[in-house]
Write a structure and sequence with these properties.
By secondary structure, this protein is an alpha/beta fold. The protein folds into two domains: 2-119, Rossmann fold (3-Layer(aba) Sandwich); 120-273 and 291-311, Dihydrodipicolinate Reductase, domain 2. The chain is 35% helix and 25% strand. The protein contains ten helices and 15 strands. The protein has helices at residues 10-20, 35-45, 53-57, 73-82, 97-110, 124-133, 166-169, 173-189, 275-287, 297-311, and strands at residues 2-6, 26-31, 49-50, 63-66, 86-90, 114-117, 140-148, 195-201, 210-216, 221-227, 237-241, 245-249, 258-262, 265-270, 295-296. The strands form two sheets. Strands 8-9-10-7-11-12-13-14 form an eight-stranded mixed beta sheet, covered by helices on one side. Strand 11 (237-241) and strand 12 form a beta hairpin. The chain is globular and about 55 Å long.
Length: 318
């Protein structure tokens, strides 16, 4: 498998691209709007830098990994699919659910794979939790998650300033970490919510510093809390059934350092693994037509839809 990389942000360069070799995937080339950075990263990874996106697409790669800014995901994914490339796109899949639906349709018609980069699906603690819960997973009554940390969100450098532009990012903390929590809840519960509401601060700003997305399922309620202002937050996943309380403490992260608790008692610790390698390996399986655990285009659409619906509950004027 030979893949091209579109966009060279921190996540792509420091987490996903180093995992390509471990997943036995050839890096066929990279492209970014910053030629100086592109040349530097290409040299570091021993690959070719393409000055334009179109040049990359016309090479002999069979897949692309899209890590460009949120507002470019739709354009880059659509053009990649139309050039016959399988697509792994970072979250948020698109800024609008209508765009996500179109990408799903195009991928289907072109008989290509469309997947979304939700790395926490490959956290070893989540796999262990699903095993521990067994049939109890069908009796979930509450499910919730928090991913919050204290950080500066006034990004001014040329590559990252789009995070301060509402029409380009589509949200604040919810786009940075909240969408990961939403995907985890939907994936674990296994169904789309019947109702969605949301609250954020500041209320009148699309770029939130803190946001909570509430979900009502058939027989359960859930919430996803994200924040850039909450310091020393326990970024835990909590699931309650009629019989038990399950927790993965310190689950929501880019690293693995977690513990599973059942009814307040520690059951297992996790400190090893590479979620990004596993994600790429599962994407490769999808491209090969094998059973896989990668988040599909439909999964990506579901998260966009939940986020979109939650944001409808805000009053933009006082």
């Amino acid at each position: 498998m030979k893949i091209g990389v579109i966009g060279l942000g921190n996540h792509a360069v420091n987490r996903v691209m180093p995992a390509l070799a471990e997943a036995n995937i050839e890096l066929g080339g990279i492209t970014t709007r910053n030629p100086e950075k592109g040349e530097l990263i290409a040299e570091k990874f021993g690959t070719k830098y393409y000055k334009t996106f179109d040049e990359l697409l016309h090479d002999d790669i069979d897949s692309v990994y899209i890590a460009s800014p949120n507002f470019l995901h739709y354009e880059h994914a659509l053009k990649s699919l139309n050039h016959g490339k399988n697509v792994l796109v970072e979250k948020q899949m698109t800024l609008r659910s209508s765009e996500a639906r179109e990408l799903i349709d195009v991928a289907r018609d072109m008989r290509l794979k469309l997947a979304v980069g939700f790395h926490l699906r490959f956290h070893p603690a989540l796999t262990a939790l699903e095993r521990m819960m067994g049939n109890d997973r069908e009796d979930i009554r509450f499910i919730g998650g928090v991913w919050a940390h204290k950080t500066s969100h006034n990004i001014e450098n040329a590559d990252s300033k789009w995070w301060n532009e509402p029409e380009k990012v589509g949200g604040g903390s919810v786009m940075g970490t909240g969408v990961h929590v939403i995907d985890t809840l939907l994936n674990l519960y296994g169904k789309f919510p019947r109702k969605v509401t949301g609250f954020r601060f500041p209320e009148t700003s699309i770029i939130d510093t803190t946001m909570i997305v509430n979900m009502q399922f058939d027989h359960a309620i859930g919430y996803a809390l994200s924040s850039r202002e909450i310091e020393k937050s326990p970024n835990d996943l909590t699931v309650m059934t009629e019989a038990h309380r399950y927790e993965i403490r310190n689950f929501f992260s880019t690293e693995i350092s977690s513990s599973i608790y059942v009814d307040g008692k520690e059951k297992e610790q996790f400190a090893e693994g590479n979620m990004y390698r596993d994600e790429l390996e599962e994407f490769k399986k999808a491209v090969m037509g094998l059973d896989n655990r990668i988040a599909s285009g439909r999964d990506g659409y579901n998260v966009v839809r939940v986020t979109e619906d939650a944001q409808k509950f805000f009053s933009m004027t006082r």
